[in-house]
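subagent[fold] <- orchestrator: predict structure for attached chain, return tokens only, no commentary.
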Amino acid sequence: MLDGIKRWLGGSAKADAPEWQGVAPWAESHQYGFRAVPGEGFVVDGRLGATPWRLEWGPSQRPYIEGQELRLRSELGLGSDLQLLVMNRKLAEHMEKTVFEQFVEGVQTRIDNQTPPEMRWLVMFAKLSGSEMGALKERWVALSSQKTWLREWLEGPLSAALAALRMDDEPPMVLMIGRGRLMLRTAMAEPLVGPLQGWLRLFECAIRETRRVAADNPDSLSPSAAPSLWQQSALPGSEREEK
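subagent[fold] -> orchestrator:
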């Protein structure tokens, strides 16, 4: 009876899911917050320097990901008009086919707010060309409402991290900026610590590069964000690296 109440309250992630046994100690060792979500998954809260992030593992919230998914998000104070999307090419081709079948050959006549923004943006914005994508052109697709911002974002460590990323069977992966938030989604059947760490490293790289570009382009910040804080946070050595 008592154990059942504890599980219902989320007091014991180990009791609900033995495969999570390594996640809570990993989070604790890095001084991250860990919280089980009964019947679904878990949430980990951490920070990169002064920038908070959240990692979630649980049922997919997108039709293009089956089963469980990993989500990473960080509120970065960017303007709402900055919309940016990077996804693996296999997913982009699947989405384009879906859009054609639903909105050209099908009975649906328009894309509305019920359609995931990833799919809407794939139709709305022009992709970077092969020459603009460089080493990423074979495996990745990138597009944005502000192509200059996107090109600068992909010039450096983030491009290298994406190029080095190896994923078995190319599962769906999306890295996007919208509504002032940086977001990463990918399929993850089991929340193993090693892969979680790898995706977090990529996401923290994306945070650093977002801060760098935003500091150089203060007009892309939300009016409520302080450019001086962005410039300070972008200084070398101002943050803790992921161990």
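orchestrator: received. Logging for downstream: The longest strand covers residues 51-59. Residues 1-16, 226-243 have pLDDT under 50 and may be disordered.
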